[in-house]
Amino acid sequence: MHNELHTINITVSALIDLLKAPPILADFENIELRALASLQVDERRVQADGTIINQGERIRSIHLVQSGWGCVYRDLSNGERQVLDFPMRSDFVGLRTAAGRSYNTVAAITPMTVFEVPLCSLANAIQQAPKLSFILIELFARQRSLLIEHLTNVGCRSALVRTAHLLLELGDRAKACGMGDDKGFDCPITQYQLADALGLTPIHLNRMVRELREEGLLMFKNSRVDYLNRKALIALAEYDGEFMHMSVFDKTMSYSGAPLQS
Amino acid sequence: MHNELHTINITVSALIDLLKAPPILADFENIELRALASLQVDERRVQADGTIINQGERIRSIHLVQSGWGCVYRDLSNGERQVLDFPMRSDFVGLRTAAGRSYNTVAAITPMTVFEVPLCSLANAIQQAPKLSFILIELFARQRSLLIEHLTNVGCRSALVRTAHLLLELGDRAKACGMGDDKGFDCPITQYQLADALGLTPIHLNRMVRELREEGLLMFKNSRVDYLNRKALIALAEYDGEFMHMSVFDKTMSYSGAPLQS
DNA sequence: CGTCTACTTGAACGGGGTCAACGAGTGTGG
DNA sequence: CCACACTCGTTGACCCCGTTCAAGTAGACG
């Protein structure tokens, strides 16, 4: 695409491709492309079990995942931890939440590559092309949807149902960025990590996985999730994948029903 | 303040005052004030138990609370519900999350007044004054912090601890907008609503409240929370109010350490 | 005075946790 | 080559936190 801008940096170009692809589906005009061209982007590679952001660390940039699976969690002083999300391709992590510091850790489960954009550079780009802020807002809104779903999971769904629900969600997200289909997906998450995300003990999570298998609904083995009976699974979990579609703005970057003035 | 703009609409002026007050503390220059002046804002009054947004409803505007207490929740088909937050002054609600529709209901607990800003008008203002987007991003980041804290509550804190934690959080938020102090705050939330937020039954929540009272930590009676021993309560809950301070940007609306070009 | 809704308490039940092993796969060093 | 360590997964038995069911109190409002 963007052949209209031959001078563009190769890393920025990869970032633009990522933003244009599903599930973000950004649709840029020249003004946004020009602003992005001046963006300061680093491609950072993180090995498995490496950390991208440490709890308590000062945050000066935002990260967008290009490949690999991550794990965002919060450590408590009593040794417990709560996994907040498992970010993958197209997910962003890292905007600081409190007093300039991150209140959660972002670790890599598999090797990851992430685009790292300094906040000051991002702010400059937004001032050049304000519509770029809409993408960030979309990403925030989507992330909020995911958090709400996870809160609903641990707050009022039974262990079995919430396990099914999360494994459906992760499959849909993987599928949305081309890493799986309705049959299943490669899932590098350990049962310990899944348990921490669902507010369960690994022992009990294991029992739930076994039950889902014995009911002929789902298979979770060798870092692979296979849906044996997706329909029944969706019914059990009362799952509705709509919740994570991005749609504060429509794809032409105007508010639906009321196009923006350019 | 803004006496430099005599033509300004009185509702917009009230909105600006709200944005400048704690905890948002926005610091506007003329360009932002001019963009805000053209903003289409309605002041909407909602009576107690009225709803601002219904689950499944189409969303075309964003709401900022001026006064009163609200309750954001998600209904499940099995009759359960998860309360996501209790918004109060300075909190925003209502940016749609999925397929153009809201996946949660926003109801008023007390009578509320909210500023309603159509998304298209907001988008126009941001295009005139891009820094306005930073405020929205701040609000999103803060809301994410709150959701993360609520998820951590139900995911890995005991019933007693999470009750203490939420009542400390709500007190701090009330205090931040001038509706309480370190002694306590007026809390119109029923024990049923609190229970739904904490993933507990009202019966068990009641026992936890009783235990907190018997331990001499906290009193919750007649829509009023009084901290009897705030220090011990904070220690019990391992509470750290920092998590909800807004600080993606500093108060001069530039990224800390790297001022924006104007 | 009756009927709400919010709150309160007791007693019994059960979902999920805890504790304790064991199995399987993988990598490391002798 | 095997022993060893280590992490992830698996299973069983027991127990406890929080639920469920049932009932009753207190205040608000007609």
Task: Give a quick set of tags describing it.
transcription regulation (chains A, B), Arc Repressor Mutant, subunit A, four-stranded antiparallel beta sheet, 8 helices, Jelly Rolls, globular, 262 residues, alpha+beta, homodimer, DNA-binding
Short characterization:
The structure is a homodimer of 262-residue chains. Chain A has helices spanning 10-20, 30-37, 119-128, 132-156, 159-176, 191-198, 202-214, 230-237; strands at residues 42-46, 51-53, 61-67, 70-75, 81-85, 92-93, 105-108, 112-118, 180-181, 184-186, 218-220, 224-227.
The rough form of chain A would be described as: globular
CATH architecture of the largest domain in chain A: Sandwich
If you average the pLDDT of chain A, what whole number results?
90
Computed over alpha carbons, the radius of gyration of chain A is 19 Å
- Biggest pleated sheet of chain A: 4 strands, antiparallel
Please name the two chains that share the biggest interface, counting residues whose Cβ lies under 8 Å from a Cβ on the partner chain: A-B, 62 and 62 residues
- CATH superfamily membership of the largest domain in chain A: Jelly Rolls
Beta strand count of chain A? 12
CATH topology of the largest domain in chain A: Jelly Rolls
Q: List SSEs of chain A in N-to-C order.
A: HHEEEEEEEEHHHEEHHEEH
Q: Which range does the strand content of chain A fall in?
A: 15-25%
Question: What class, by secondary structure content of chain A?
Answer: alpha+beta
